[in-house]
Amino acid sequence: MLPAQSGAPLDADAAISIRGLVKRYGDFVAVDGLDLDIRRGEIFALLGPNGAGKTTTVEICEGYRSRDAGEVRVLGEDPADGARSWKAQLGIVLQSGAGESQLTTREMLIAQASYYADPQDPDEVLELVGLTEKAGVRGKALSGGQRRRLDVALGIVGRPTLLFLDEPTTGFDPEARRQFWSLIRSLRELGTTMLLTTHYLDEAEALADRVGVITRGKLVEVAVPSLLGGRETAPAVVSWTEDGARRTEATATPTALLRELGTRFPGEIPDLAVARPTLEDVYLQMIGEAR
Amino acid sequence: MTTTTTSSAATARPLPSLPTVYRSRASVELKEFFRQRESVVFTLMLPVLLLVVFGAVLDYELADGVSFTQYFTAGIIAAGILGASLQNMAISIATERSDGTLKSLAGTPMPKSAYFVGKVVQVLAVTVAIIVVLLFIAVVFYGIELPSGADWLTFAWVAALGAAACTLLGIALSSLAKNGRSASATVTPFALLLQFISGVFFQFEQIPTWMQTVAAFFPLKWMAQGFRSVFLPDVMAAAEPADSWELGRTALVLGAWCIAGLLLCVATFRWQDRSAG
Predict the structure, then answer these.
(1) Which residues in chain B are contacts of A102 at CB distance < 8 A?
(2) In this structure, how many other beta carbons lie within 10 angstroms of the beta carbon of residue A243?
(3) Mean pLDDT, residues B61-86
(4) Would you call A99 and B32 a contact, using CB atoms and an 8 Å cutoff?
């Protein structure tokens, strides 16, 4: 699937609709004519190497940065206008997180909740992110992973329609990351739209309905994770052991090869493995080509 | 720009009222200050210790029945207010800007005014606390007489106008610093220098004239002078540069700094680090 063309009109019903977005820092073009539509209710992952324009794009959608050209609508409004009522529908988890605080985890959530019309109960949110035991601990005494979960809690306490997650799990151990994923899935059940940026391709694959790959400020492809880069039709790699040696063959027709192997071996095919390119393989190839 | 149908802001419930958010921010700011040991020690305890030490060491008379401690009480209250407002604001806001607190707040529907209301409440609380503690020590340990009658009024307006001017100036200064540490490293020596040339630690008349002139550009000199009119007998006005307390000019200079500070704040305040465009 190709990204939408600049000629297409903005999609006012989309959670996020971007046409021809350009952002320059001096001579450096951080975002270079980017088009993107994110549907309501979907989880969209933006992938790309450092400096590709992910955070710039996200922060323009959040209303933090100005743009040099192009059209952007977030929940039907131009982020540059940034009214209070519009911000009330967003949840933002910044890459940098929030600062240090003398307040306890619970006090921070109560303060954050006081800015919103219909916030969720702070204690429920603490439970949701697994920080109930840390409710009385001051923000500066939390570990890195706990701190990040607090950032997420602060982002969702206002019951956002659209949640931005900029590299939310950086620094998590694998278990914390799994817990985080189940939290994101439970938010999806509530219909929350999410725009996620991440360096972890397994995370994108596990969570995202669609992924977009961005390099040098351009969106090079948008697809469901299993179809990215023609993954489903890419040659499969079949490997087995024969005559004491490891044999490997790339083929577009792995089933035929297996049938043939089946005739050569009377029983099990020794050490058989059939692999499709992983999302990571496809991704690395894509950003490699763009360079 | 092409306009599209705005399916905007159809949140069922209205956003919280301003007073509600103001209360919430005031509570946050009070906790942030009074729970941080460094800020409490630096801003609150330092003036107190200075008063205790100077009061005990420099125990001499400036004139018949007028002690240096009376003079110093006026000066240290002015310096205490400077710390609670200018230094406190410049450092805390620069810190909050560099560590992402301000950016996070800007991404919420919190009305921007609530942030400043919270800061003003913090400055007020700290200023009142400093004044109460300093007056208590001055009266109980050094026999300083509390102001009486109209002097209270002078005391109140000099404190309020001085705190307002220094708060605005502090907020403006916060935008010059890269982060909290660099704000502290530049604002602290600046404040100390001002204290030396503004008649806090030494009698103003003993300071070289050109330094007096420099000091007269900044609020601290006028605050200290205003408080001296409260704590010293009127005969001491003869020792001032203009042979009088110059209360009218004090109000004028502090008022002018309020306006200049406000304009600087409006022109320079940023919710993010400079790197963001």
Answers:
(1) 31-32, 35-36
(2) 5
(3) 93
(4) no
